[in-house]
Amino acid sequence: MDQVDQRFSKDMEIPIYQRKKADFNLIVKADFLLDVDGKKLIIDISGLGSDIISMLREQQYRILTLSGEKDIATIVVKTLHFLGHQSEEGPHHFFASEREASRNIQISMPGVIFINHKGRKVLATHLSQPQDIVDFLSQKGYQILYLPFS
User: Fold this and answer.
1) Strands (E), 45-99
2) CA neighbor of 78 nearest in space, from 92, 93, 60, 63
3) Residue 91 and residue 63 share a domain
4) Is 93 in the same domain as 64?
5) How many CB atoms within 10 Å of residue 117?
6) For residue 96, how many C-alpha atoms fall within 13 Å in the half-sphere facing its CB?
7) Which of 49, 103, 129, 131 has its CA 20 to 30 A from that of 35?
8) Based on the domain organization, do 41 and 9 belong to the same domain?
9) Phi, psi (deg, nearest 5) at residue 60
Protein backbone atom coordinates (compact mmCIF):
# COMPACT_ATOMS: atom_id res chain seq x y z
CA MET A 1 0.00 0.00 0.00
CA ASP A 2 3.08 2.13 -0.04
CA GLN A 3 2.61 2.96 -3.76
CA VAL A 4 -0.77 4.54 -3.03
CA ASP A 5 0.58 6.32 0.07
CA GLN A 6 -1.98 4.81 2.40
CA ARG A 7 -1.05 4.49 6.07
CA PHE A 8 -2.13 1.27 7.71
CA SER A 9 -1.69 -0.79 10.84
CA LYS A 10 -0.90 -4.47 10.64
CA ASP A 11 -2.23 -7.19 12.98
CA MET A 12 -4.33 -4.72 14.96
CA GLU A 13 -6.54 -5.91 17.77
CA ILE A 14 -10.07 -4.54 17.52
CA PRO A 15 -12.42 -4.86 20.48
CA ILE A 16 -15.81 -5.99 19.18
CA TYR A 17 -17.49 -6.59 22.48
CA GLN A 18 -16.41 -5.48 25.96
CA ARG A 19 -18.00 -5.43 29.36
CA LYS A 20 -16.98 -3.03 32.08
CA LYS A 21 -16.31 -5.84 34.52
CA ALA A 22 -14.07 -7.53 31.91
CA ASP A 23 -15.69 -10.91 32.49
CA PHE A 24 -16.04 -11.28 28.72
CA ASN A 25 -14.24 -9.43 25.94
CA LEU A 26 -14.22 -10.28 22.25
CA ILE A 27 -11.21 -8.98 20.37
CA VAL A 28 -10.53 -9.57 16.67
CA LYS A 29 -7.12 -9.29 15.05
CA ALA A 30 -7.31 -7.42 11.74
CA ASP A 31 -4.64 -8.23 9.17
CA PHE A 32 -4.65 -4.61 7.94
CA LEU A 33 -6.56 -1.71 9.47
CA LEU A 34 -6.85 1.61 7.63
CA ASP A 35 -8.58 4.92 8.13
CA VAL A 36 -9.58 6.48 4.81
CA ASP A 37 -11.44 9.76 5.01
CA GLY A 38 -12.77 8.85 8.45
CA LYS A 39 -13.93 5.39 7.35
CA LYS A 40 -12.58 2.34 9.15
CA LEU A 41 -11.39 -0.26 6.64
CA ILE A 42 -10.14 -3.80 7.20
CA ILE A 43 -8.31 -5.91 4.64
CA ASP A 44 -8.77 -9.53 5.68
CA ILE A 45 -6.23 -12.01 4.36
CA SER A 46 -6.40 -14.75 6.98
CA GLY A 47 -10.15 -15.33 6.74
CA LEU A 48 -12.41 -13.86 9.39
CA GLY A 49 -15.60 -15.82 9.85
CA SER A 50 -18.91 -14.50 8.56
CA ASP A 51 -20.21 -13.91 12.11
CA ILE A 52 -17.17 -11.79 12.98
CA ILE A 53 -17.49 -9.86 9.71
CA SER A 54 -21.15 -9.15 10.51
CA MET A 55 -20.20 -7.83 13.96
CA LEU A 56 -17.48 -5.64 12.49
CA ARG A 57 -19.89 -4.25 9.89
CA GLU A 58 -22.37 -3.42 12.66
CA GLN A 59 -19.58 -1.26 14.12
CA GLN A 60 -19.24 0.55 10.76
CA TYR A 61 -16.12 -1.24 9.51
CA ARG A 62 -15.82 -1.85 5.78
CA ILE A 63 -14.15 -5.17 5.04
CA LEU A 64 -12.34 -6.53 2.01
CA THR A 65 -11.89 -10.29 2.27
CA LEU A 66 -9.01 -11.68 0.23
CA SER A 67 -8.58 -15.01 2.00
CA GLY A 68 -8.23 -17.85 -0.47
CA GLU A 69 -7.52 -15.50 -3.38
CA LYS A 70 -4.50 -16.80 -5.29
CA ASP A 71 -4.27 -14.50 -8.30
CA ILE A 72 -2.03 -11.56 -7.45
CA ALA A 73 -3.53 -9.32 -10.15
CA THR A 74 -7.00 -9.87 -8.69
CA ILE A 75 -5.69 -9.08 -5.20
CA VAL A 76 -4.12 -5.84 -6.44
CA VAL A 77 -7.23 -4.77 -8.40
CA LYS A 78 -9.59 -5.54 -5.51
CA THR A 79 -7.36 -3.73 -3.00
CA LEU A 80 -6.97 -0.66 -5.20
CA HIS A 81 -10.73 -0.53 -5.83
CA PHE A 82 -11.42 -0.95 -2.09
CA LEU A 83 -9.11 2.01 -1.38
CA GLY A 84 -10.82 4.11 -4.05
CA HIS A 85 -8.14 3.93 -6.75
CA GLN A 86 -8.75 3.15 -10.41
CA SER A 87 -6.71 0.44 -12.10
CA GLU A 88 -6.46 -1.32 -15.42
CA GLU A 89 -5.71 -5.03 -15.61
CA GLY A 90 -3.51 -6.22 -18.50
CA PRO A 91 -1.89 -7.52 -20.54
CA HIS A 92 -0.55 -4.10 -21.48
CA HIS A 93 1.11 -3.38 -24.81
CA PHE A 94 3.95 -0.94 -25.38
CA PHE A 95 5.48 0.04 -28.72
CA ALA A 96 9.21 0.54 -28.97
CA SER A 97 8.96 3.62 -31.18
CA GLU A 98 6.46 6.16 -32.49
CA ARG A 99 6.11 4.62 -35.95
CA GLU A 100 3.16 2.63 -37.29
CA ALA A 101 2.35 -0.74 -35.71
CA SER A 102 3.28 -2.82 -38.77
CA ARG A 103 6.85 -1.50 -38.60
CA ASN A 104 7.22 -1.49 -34.85
CA ILE A 105 8.21 -3.74 -31.99
CA GLN A 106 5.54 -4.40 -29.38
CA ILE A 107 6.18 -5.50 -25.81
CA SER A 108 3.30 -7.12 -23.94
CA MET A 109 3.32 -7.25 -20.14
CA PRO A 110 0.86 -8.84 -17.75
CA GLY A 111 -0.08 -6.83 -14.71
CA VAL A 112 -2.11 -3.98 -13.32
CA ILE A 113 -1.58 -0.29 -14.08
CA PHE A 114 -2.59 2.41 -11.62
CA ILE A 115 -1.62 5.97 -10.77
CA ASN A 116 0.32 6.32 -7.51
CA HIS A 117 0.05 9.17 -4.99
CA LYS A 118 2.73 11.13 -6.87
CA GLY A 119 0.75 10.95 -10.12
CA ARG A 120 3.12 8.45 -11.69
CA LYS A 121 1.91 5.42 -13.62
CA VAL A 122 2.79 2.13 -11.93
CA LEU A 123 2.81 -1.27 -13.60
CA ALA A 124 2.43 -3.95 -10.94
CA THR A 125 3.51 -7.31 -12.36
CA HIS A 126 4.57 -10.71 -11.10
CA LEU A 127 7.24 -10.98 -13.81
CA SER A 128 10.77 -9.95 -12.97
CA GLN A 129 12.07 -7.71 -15.77
CA PRO A 130 15.56 -7.21 -17.16
CA GLN A 131 16.95 -3.75 -16.49
CA ASP A 132 16.62 -2.80 -20.19
CA ILE A 133 12.84 -3.33 -20.03
CA VAL A 134 12.59 -1.44 -16.72
CA ASP A 135 14.52 1.46 -18.29
CA PHE A 136 12.36 1.35 -21.42
CA LEU A 137 9.14 1.49 -19.40
CA SER A 138 10.58 4.23 -17.19
CA GLN A 139 11.18 6.33 -20.33
CA LYS A 140 7.51 5.75 -21.19
CA GLY A 141 6.57 7.12 -17.73
CA TYR A 142 6.01 3.84 -15.87
CA GLN A 143 7.41 2.66 -12.60
CA ILE A 144 7.60 -1.13 -12.16
CA LEU A 145 6.28 -2.71 -8.98
CA TYR A 146 7.46 -6.28 -8.84
CA LEU A 147 5.00 -8.61 -7.08
CA PRO A 148 7.10 -11.67 -6.20
CA PHE A 149 4.24 -14.15 -5.91
CA SER A 150 1.61 -15.23 -8.37
Assistant:
1) 61-65, 87-89, 92-95
2) 63
3) no
4) no
5) 11
6) 8
7) 49
8) yes
9) 70, 25
Does residue 114 fall inside a structural domain?
yes
Which residues, 6+ apart, have CB-to-CB distance to 133 below 8 Å? 107
59: left (phi over 0), alpha (psi -120 to 50) or beta: alpha
81 located within any domain: no
Instruction: Find the helix or strand (DSSP H, E) in which 82 lies.
Output: helix 72-82
Parallel/antiparallel/unpaired status of strands 25-36 and 112-115 = unpaired
Ordered per-residue pLDDT tens for the chain, 150 residues: 454 556 778 888 888 876 666 677 788 999 999 988 889 999 999 999 999 999 999 999 999 999 989 888 899 999 999 988 899 998 999 998 888 888 899 999 999 999 988 889 999 998 888 999 999 999 999 999 988 764
Indicate the number of domains in the chain.
2
